[in-house]
Please model this.
Amino acid sequence: MIRKGSAVWKGDLKSGTGLITTESGTLSNHQYSFGSRFENGFGTNPEELIAAAHAGCFSMALSAELGKAGMQPESIQTIASVQLDMLPEGPTVTEIHLDCQAKIPGADKDAFLKVAETAKAGCPISRLLKAKIILTAKLV
Model:
């Protein structure tokens, strides 16, 4: 299975602009720029897209692992925060923090945390990324 995304960049780094598109059309020529990536400008950026992908992937992986452990989630909400730092070698994603809240009636906290760690390690996007991945998971 192959999934595709594409980008077109026009101009120099600081004043240029780009368009990002996903194969599914969910994003279609969506704007990104130096300002949206390194400042607070309009548009998206690669780190934001990685964060959304990781949050979605982890939530699905957690649901699967909970099912294997005999727990039925009512809801799982994950926010992924991607840390982009300016290092001597250039801008680098150094950390991703997964902040997860799950509503699972009758779940044991320790069992849940163990399953959440398994999901973090097994999520395809977690395995893809080389950055440190931090998980905060709690039952609500």
About this structure: Strands lie at 5-10, 17-22, 30-33, 75-87, 90-103, 132-139. Residues 46-68 form the longest helix (23 residues).
